[in-house]
Amino acid sequence: MGHRISVTINGTVHEAEVESRLLLVHFLREVLGLTGTHIGCDTTNCGACTVLLQGRAVKSCTVLAVQADGREVMTVEGLARNGQLHPVQEGFFEKHGLQCGFCTPGMMMSAYALLQQNPNPSEGEIRWGISGNLCRCTGYVNIVEAVKYAAEKMRATPAAAELERS
Amino acid sequence: MVISHALGARIKRREDPRLITGRAIYVDDLNFAGMVHVAIVRSPHAHATIRSIDTTAARRAPGVVAVWTGEDVKARCGPLPVGPRIKEMKAPKRFPLVIDGVVRHVGDPVAAVVATTMDAARDASDLVEVDYEPLPSVQDPEAALEPGAPILHQDLGTNVCFRMTYGGGNVEEAFAGADVVVKTRIVQQRLIPAAMETRGVVAQYKGGELTVWTSTQIPHVVKTTLAETVRLPEHEIHVIAPEVGGGFGSKLDVYGEEGLVAALALALGRPVKWIESRRENFIATIHGRGQIDYVELAAHHDGTVAGLRVRAIADLGAYSQLLTPGVPTNTGLMCCGCYRIPNAHAEVIGVFTNRTPTDAYRGAGRPEATFLIERAMDLLAAELKMDPVEVRRKNFIPPAAFPYKTPTGAVYDSGNYERALDKALERADYRALRDEQAKLRKQGRYLGIGIATYVEITGLGAVAGLSGGNWESATVRVEPTGKVTVLTGTSPHGQGEETTFAQIVSDRLGVPVEDVVVLHGDTRAVPHGVGTFGSRTTPVGGSAVYVAAEKVKDKAVQIAAHLLEAAPADISTDGARFTVRGSPERSVEFKDVARMAYKAYKLPAGMEPGLDVTHFFVPKERVFPFGTHLCVVEVDPDTGEVTFRRYIAVDDCGNILNPLLVAGQIHGGIVQGLAQAIYEGVTYDDEGQLLTGTFAEYVVPQATDVPAFELDHTVTPSPHNPLGAKGVGEAGTIGATPAVVNAILDALAPFGVKDLQMPITPRRVWEALEGNSASR
Q1: How far apart are CA B411 and CA B403, in angstroms?
Q2: Residues within 8 A of B (CB atoms), A 96-135 only
Q3: Can you tell me the mean pLDDT for B312-316?
Q4: Which of B4, B114, B277, B618 has its Cβ near the most Cβ atoms within 10 Å?
Q5: How far is A166 from chain B (nearest CA, A)?
């Protein structure tokens, strides 16, 4: 049985007819072709599929597409604007916060959500903030550094950063 | 250390921009018109006979295109590779689906359902009715050796796949004449590699060419093997490893699904996709470790080691995969560690059990070797009441002894083990730590200091199970505009060689790093290759790039000399420009030399056009990175919880091409090694059901579970390759497990606890202390 849904993704409204059981992550990947969001498990443990739903980090493998109806979703594809990397992306690039890159989109979305709530997190708060996201490559050391870098950059130029992006 | 403007520099990764913007393409991101999806029906039994398979209902389900069983595979597919041929090895044939009517582990593939959507395929796979007759199974490798144990492969008549011995000297005499002997039995628990991307295969047969996209570390090996498996001429097969989301050895294999999906694409004439679920990944992708080691170390009162005896029983699981026997044999080869042990004997027995097959997982036999010798050295230190540092120092192979041949047959290229140890001790302020430990013990707090000094083996090449010798290929192609394309036969999947190999070329040719693009993982683009594993990518693959670039440079100099009407010996270059020495006005730009190499009307007599060199680098010998890891923990005796205080790693991987990337490799490596010590472990029940079947039960560490690390290096270049590099992909893992375990057991020494089974969970610590509560 189909449901007509309308979801705003990275600022663009998408309408589609979806099956009841379709997961948000499959809606993003299969229906819309937004393959930057990855699937790393089937038990909501790994966090590779993390996106923002109404500004909150959610694991999109545990959200039905119909639950996103009428709401706003932000994915990794929405981080950079006008060819300008977001400070979170810049941090991962500068600090070697990724290796194979598979967990990275979800990891960055969790970091983004954390920094929205806590612009100046301690190392412990960063580790806690990304603890729902598994990374098998980096040992997390440089991810923590990347988030610190992003936090500093966002605090230094909050207005400028937002202006550039708008 | 910066070796040149490009080599040794901290250069950000060139692969990152596509990965941080969601533009990278992994296998599951591929979609083609008309593509169909595969779900695999897997055995729920550890050992059973298939009485019958009824696919009627599945075939009728909505969207189903085909259902295959072993019969279909038997008609269409040849066998899969079953490991390097080692002496008197008995290995059963493997096929993409079970074809002989017997399943041998939970997860053994029985049938494949193909449908128009993934959901339809999975729904229909539930409708395949398989009637099994369960057989007695054997889970424990020691039990599998017992007479009367269930035999997995009746035609082999035994569960023993192979027996190998390593050693030299006179071990019996050494033990008879020793003052002390320490013994231990170590269970190297199975681990799940758990790359964040599971495996996946897409295949398409179009225009007389079979293209297979697969999440692999060895695309060229897959191509050669597929030719036999799907019976197609090799030059009609194109294998692509697109973006690969981690491997750690688990994608260093040729899996049945690669052949199955390819065969389906050929038979159905449609693109076919299979993406492994995480649950499948835990039962159908190889596991690592899985070894029981009996270790005996004989020594004199002063701490000098006289002899070592090892009996390693390797749990191979149900089948021999591509390199399965090569893993425990590494343990036999490397069990003497950093020490001059004149008399050593290691017996390695590979045994089939009704479990998921084991194969190479980060370290692949060297972590087991390092762990056993490093635990034994600590036991010896405790027995002799010596400092673990002093026992190690006393037995180190001295710097002057290199190249050094161990009694087990390894020839260590270079090393200075004491220098790395000293650096770690100095950084840790070891004496102060021991003082603090003594002080805290009086307060009822238990600090532990663990040391592991390791040596490992890298630059492993293509053993017999793979397609060739111990080589790697590289092409350095200067385009007519002076830009450079590098083709490497390695297949990096997170290691960053698109950056480091560009650095090598930049260093040799003088062109900016930005002018170099490194291509890999595509068998049509890269003519030949072996792959990325065993920390070989830089020492072997990087050396191939280095030599190819040198040859390009030689040719460019000859062309420049000809254009400038000078002798090649008189040409100097800064990369951008070739100049006649002493006549700065007589010069030609690099890009003009490149252009002229292809215009080809003014080349030296007899020279072929082009500026393009392919080199197969064959290392003279394998290389041996080493180092010291020092871990400081505090153990809470009431809860058994382990808290990390400090972790210091001093690694020597020879010359460092990019310190940023080396640090990343070590960080990640340490976490995987540390995880074996205290978090990760595969658990099966007596029936062979995997109890740690998801990330909820199998504890891959989260960010909150691990500390930050203090890294340092010593640099002892390898004499065996032009880069002087040794490889660093596995060192962290190899050093970490014994460092952490030695630290925990050092903390628990006052309680008389000498050994604990990994993973050393709070419960295991707590139980050990309860058992020893009298001594508290």
Answers
A1: 6
A2: 96, 98-105, 108, 123, 126-128, 130-135
A3: 98
A4: B114
A5: 18
**Parallel, antiparallel or unpaired: strands B343-352 and B160-168:** antiparallel
Residues of chain B with Cβ-Cβ distance to A9 below 8 Å are: none
**Which of A29, A42, A75 faces B277 most closely, judged by CB atoms?**
A42
Lowest model confidence (mean pLDDT) among A156-165, B293-302, B356-365? A156-165
Span B92-117, mean pLDDT? 97
The yes-or-no verdict on residue B466 having pLDDT over 60 is: no
CB contact under 8 A, B494 and A137: yes
Render pLDDT for B702-713 as a digit per residue (tens, 0 to 9). Answer: 999 999 999 999
- DSSP assignment letter at B775: G
Q: Where in chain A is the domain with CATH 1.10.150.120?
A: 87-165
Domain with CATH 3.10.20.30 in chain A: 2-78
B88 SS3 class: coil
Given A46, A102, A134, which is nearest B26 (Cβ)?
A: A102
- DSSP lists the bridge partners of residue A72 as A8
Ramachandran quadrant class, B211 (left: phi over 0; alpha: psi -120 to 50; beta: rest) = beta
Tokens of A108: 């960055």
Query: Distance between CA B448 and CA B749 in Å, rounded?
Result: 9
Is A72 an 8 Å CB contact of chain B? Answer: no
Q: Which residue has the tokens 């000399």?
A: B561
Tens-digit pLDDT profile for residues B411-431: 999 999 999 999 999 999 999
- Which among B494, B671, B694 has CB closest to A45? B694
Nearest CA in chain A to B24: A36
Residues of chain A neighbouring B731 (CB-CB closer than 8 A): none
Q: Reduced to 3 states, what is the DSSP secondary structure of residue B583? A: strand
- Asked if residue B105 lies in contact with residue B318, where contact means CB atoms within 8 angstroms, the answer is yes
CATH numbers and ranges of domains, chain B: 27-135+194-284 (3.90.1170.50), 288-460+621-775 (3.30.365.10), 471-617 (3.30.365.10)
In this predicted structure, the answer to whether residue A105 has a pLDDT above a threshold of 90 is yes
Q: What is the 3-state secondary structure (H, E, C) of A34-50?
A: CCCCCCCCCCCCCCCCE
Q: What's the rounded mean pLDDT across residues B394-418? A: 96
pLDDT band of residue B375 (cuts 50, 70, 90) is: very high
Instruction: Say yes or no: ipTM exceeds 0.90.
Output: yes
CB contact under 8 A, B694 and A143: no
Comparing A140-144, B273-277, B482-486, B720-724, the range with the smallest average pLDDT is B720-724
CA distance B760 to B764: 6
Residues 144-163 of A with CB under 8 A from B: 144
Give B153-176 pLDDT, tens digit per residue.
999 999 999 999 999 999 999 999
Candidates B19, B198, B646, B700: best to mutate against A (most CBs of A within 10 A) is B19
A64 touches B: beta carbon within 8 Å: no
d(CA B450, CA B371): 12
Nearest to B345 by CA among B380, B391, B375, B312: B312
* CATH of range A2-78; options 1.10.1520.10, 3.40.50.800, 3.10.20.30, 3.10.310.10: 3.10.20.30
Instruction: Name every chain B residue with its beta carbon within 8 A of the beta carbon of A79.
Output: 20-21
Chain A contact for B122 (CB, 8 A cutoff): no
- Which residue from A minimizes the CA distance to B198? A40
3-class state of residue B408 by DSSP: coil
**Best CA proximity match to B612, nearest among B556, B528, B538, B542:** B556
How far is CA B493 from each of CA A89, B19, B339, B729, rounded to the nearest angstrom? 20, 12, 34, 12
pLDDT band, very low/low/confident/very high, at B645 (cuts 50, 70, 90): very high
Nearest CA among B392, B398, B397 for reference residue B424? B392
3-class secondary structure, A49: coil
